[in-house]
Design brief:
The chain is about 50% helix and about 5% strand. By secondary structure, it is mainly alpha-helical. The longest helix has about 45 residues.
Length: about 375
């Protein structure tokens, strides 16, 4: 009989704990929704009411990010409330479609195309299907193959850079292109035929060359330092986090947070096996370096980009708690959402006091923050 009582006690305790957790999650969701409402109200006021864009005219990606914030709000009434803003924003994106299929202004063609493509797909207007199809072809054509032999014999082969397919690839642009093409493939797989697709194997070959993993990456700059193994750099041979001297006097590159999440996202979009050593290694690195206080290895630089990539990578991985360097389980969703709520200004926007990578632009940073909070909201 005592064992039955013990089981009943466990059930009661578990039910109480589950109920308490649900109450906490609902409370956080309410706070997030309030924050989203403030942020969207501010964003709507910052839109160019004549042309429909947010931010600089030549970079439609800023408008794409803002549009996605409105579309991603958990209440279906919010997109309706801001319908005029959305119509103008989407029309502006459409106005930036180029003859080569890309969606951009004066530069950063692949970056702008990837983000604008995601916005159009999220809006789900059938009139944009042709635009998305052509944008897909454009992004596929941006994949590097420096000798046109279809082989990954150049360190940059398989990746995507900012614009010309002959410019060097980097992990940031590559993972964004992979994201856009992944969702396009999922959205249109039953409706289209003979649509060019990314060489996913070549893309992963490039991504792997950005990982500090000596067992898989034999590039001379790869670090075997415990603080670096498993993490990622910006592109083969270059890390925004700088270098470290090894014991034999050679130079190795430091891993850092935002690119390590971009690396994990690349593996996810390529639908790699979660047991692949490269996937396991980056998850281990991210566990050891988990923090919301900074972009690991970069401090405040690119902090909101880091939050955005973190929320995407962890939510898509199904990770709700993450074990930090001290072995403590952290509810990253709760920590990050409350942190962002505290950083939001009374007017509804966010800003990074460190201006690296445009993060003193409140439109860009507010969009990153809103997209991060929306991502968290849907996982609670």
């Amino acid at each position: 009989m005592k064992y039955i009582h013990l089981v009943i006690c466990y059930i009661v305790i578990f039910s109480f704990a589950s109920g308490q957790k649900e109450l906490v999650n609902q409370s956080i969701k309410q706070e997030i929704e309030r924050s989203l409402n403030m942020g969207l109200k501010w964003l709507s006021q910052e839109q160019n009411k004549t042309s429909g864009n947010w931010g600089l005219d030549e970079y439609p990606a800023l408008t794409g990010l803002a549009v996605r914030c409105f579309l991603g709000h958990p209440s279906k009434h919010v997109p309706q409330k801001y319908e005029k803003s959305l119509i103008k924003g989407l029309d502006f994106i459409r106005s930036k479609v180029q003859s080569d299929g890309g969606i951009y202004g004066k530069g950063l063609a692949s970056y702008n195309t990837s983000i604008c493509m995601l916005a159009l797909m999220q809006a789900k207007h059938s009139e944009d299907d042709v635009i998305v199809k052509n944008a897909r072809k454009f992004l596929v054509n941006q994949q590097s193959d420096f000798d046109n032999k279809g082989e990954t014999d150049n360190v940059f082969d398989g990746g995507v850079g900012y614009g010309s397919r002959w410019a060097h690839s980097d992990l940031s642009n590559t993972h964004l292109a992979m994201e856009a093409l992944f969702y396009a493939k999922k959205s249109y797989q039953n409706t289209e035929e003979n649509v060019p697709d990314l060489d996913w194997e070549a893309a992963i070959s490039f991504v792997s060359k950005c990982q500090n993993l000596p067992s898989k990456n034999k590039e001379k700059w790869v670090s075997d330092h415990p603080a670096d193994v498993g993490g990622f750099v910006y592109f083969p041979g270059s890390s925004m986090a700088g270098e470290r001297e090894t014991q034999n006097g050679s130079v190795a590159l430091r891993s850092y947070g935002s690119m390590s999440y971009a690396g994990l996202l690349s593996f996810i979009y390529a639908e790699m096996d979660s047991k692949d050593p490269r996937v396991i290694a980056v998850k281990d690195w991210l566990n050891k370096h988990y923090t919301i206080a900074e972009n690991p290895g970069m401090g405040p630089q690119g902090l909101y980009y880091y939050y955005h990539t973190m929320s995407k990578a962890l939510s898509l991985s199904g990770i709700t708690t993450i074990k930090d360097s001290e072995g403590k389980n952290k509810d990253w969703r709760k920590e990050l959402s409350l942190h962002l709520l505290n950083l939001q200004s009374k007017d509804g926007f966010w800003i990074n006091n460190n201006g690296r990578w445009w993060e003193k632009d409140p439109i860009l940073v507010t969009s990153y923050a809103l997209l991060t909070l929306e991502r968290i909201y849907y996982t609670l």
